[in-house]
Design brief:
The protein is of the alpha+beta class. The protein has a domain of 75 residues. Helix content is 22%, strand content 33%. The chain has three helices and six strands; from the N terminus they run H-H-E-E-E-E-E-E-H. The chain is elongated. The termini are far apart.
């Protein structure tokens, strides 16, 4: 069976893009990166320990991944369990590169 060029062109125009197919199969979630980590020494049960604190930035990740989709996170990121589209605490900024790749449906 031979397919005409018009039928082939129509079928190609109607198929979803590769990006939309990939996005449909994965859930975009948020993960946090410490942007200015600062070590804080503490005493825990008589033993000295060090924790790291600092301001955080939200990145888009696939499912509960630890690698930001934008590739700009210096270190691995910590999954939050929040969907990318959901509201985030006001003091946590979202990565501008991730927002360009995965814009929010409505402004938050």
């Amino acid at each position: 069976m031979k397919i005409s060029r018009e039928v082939w062109a129509t079928a190609r125009a109607q198929r979803p893009s590769r990006r939309s197919c990939q996005t449909a199969l994965m859930t975009i979630m948020s993960a946090l990166e410490l942007i200015e980590p600062e070590p804080v020494p503490l005493d825990f049960a008589g033993a000295p320990i060090e924790i790291t604190t600092g301001p955080a930035r939200a990145h888009a990740v696939v499912d509960e991944g630890t690698t930001a989709l934008c590739g700009t996170a210096v270190r691995r990121v910590l999954p939050t369990g929040w969907e990318w589209e959901s509201a985030h605490p006001a003091h946590i900024e979202r990565c501008a590169s991730c927002l360009r790749m995965h814009p929010l449906e409505s402004p938050r």
